[in-house]
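Archive entry. Fields below.
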Amino acid sequence: MHADPAVEVTGLVKRYGDKIAVDGLDLAIARGTVTAVLGPNGAGKTTTVETCEGYRRPDAGTVRVLGLDPVAQAAQLRPRIGVMLQSGGVYAGARALEMLQHTAKLYANPLPVGPLAERLGLDSCGRTPYRRLSGGQQQRLALAMAVVGRPELVFLDEPTAGLDPQARRATWELVSELRAAGVTVVLTTHQMDEAEQLADDVAIIDRGRVITQGSPDELRGSEAQLRFDGPAGLDLAGLRKVLPDTAVVAEPTPGSYRVEGALDAALLAAVTGWCAEAGVMPDKLAVQRRSLEDVFLDLTGRELR
Amino acid sequence: MTATDLTPRPGAAPVGRMLLAQTALETRMLLRNGEQLLLTVVIPTVLLVLFSAVDVVAVDGPGKRVDFLAPGLLALAVMSTAFTGQAIATGFERRYGVLKRLGATPLPRWALLTAKTGCVLVTELLQVLLLSGIALALGWSPHGNPLAVLLLLVLGTAAFSGLGLLMAGTLRAEATLAGANLVFILLLLAGGVVVPLAKFPDAVRPVLELLPISALSDGLRSVLQLGGGTPWADLGILAVWSVLGLAAAARFFRWE
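PREDICTED_STRUCTURE:
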């Protein structure tokens, strides 16, 4: 095990014309871990990952991947990393297995292509040209191409976007096995359950900076909240009157209510009692910790961008 | 589900193996593509047979019609593969992220470009064999020094490759598709391929003679039809186009 990180980004700045895509971003990713990079669209996730892959030259700051400069030392770095782009990357006329076999030939000790294709469900469409593969098959081929060279570090940009549940599960299993085999995995995703399931570490990026990083457990915190659904626009001022002053009441999305603070049976009784008074049936009533999605929305805001 | 041993064992394949694999893949992609075959095989073949058999274009010089036409269509074959075909294929590879994705593998960029050149040369060899075979069957009697012919074909390939890659690496894929086909038609008509440049007005002829297709078809004709020595002037024109095209491609080519 190496003590130095697999990826170390310090003060990264990347501009496209006037637009600042990445604005002084710091990120360290430990070897042998799965790290999920989360963030709203346009937050700078893909730019950051593509800078680590050597596609973009930083305008400021330093990037080290496996101790190497991804641009200046690309020839040394490329054999050691696997890359899955968000889309494309395959000749339109190439057959699925043909492209995977070809990618394997570019590495010294590739995985056997047959079993890899089989476990990702690519054997049945192995002779189909890329342009006629379904979106999910194209995604799985890109994933297979990212791991076939037996890399130390893989970058997966939205690996399960558009996958059906079976394919998503197969992808998750592969990521877990990569981790068990000591491979470092960096993935970007919009799916919070994916990050909770797979990631040792989560980095949330917004407006070109890492705004928080930690394990899913750390980010969710220990504090519980009470949640229920009901008709939109209930009189929350009335609810606050029957609750202790420490309780915080909110309707984060219409018809979905949250109560935070010192939760106990009395507070629960007060909430349900108030509901009964108001003639409201509290649907999906639950006392639980904040989800990663709550954390994400609290940090990055709820408005559309 | 079979367990896969995913333990890292990173490393690049030997560069010779990568080069061979990439050349073979590029060549398979080209030979599998119907539109490319139309351009590189069907059109030159049809023009050769049609214009040799039917007196619709007035040819120039001594010998049979095919003695004038065969060198022109060899020049067209080089242009169709090195310029039009390569520009369109590379433009769409760029659009679909193929060049980007290959950039993250151990395959060096120079090896990718060398593989493309290898693919062009393999295709041209097949074209030359096919067109020469048909021309000989039509009674073609080639003259001259084969080495001079080879030199012309190689420099012609370099000139057209530079221009094709420049187009593919700077324009959108659709623009490359349209532009490369338009240039193909224009140069086919106005580059001495089937219509002798002597038929054009004196005012434009000196300009047309500087085109790479004119230099290639004129050079090939001066050797194969007329049995002349090494056509240095035509080789010079092709060399200038090669240097300009390849330098501009190297300078302006965008991989994404």
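CURATOR_NOTE: DSSP finds eleven helices and 13 strands in chain A.
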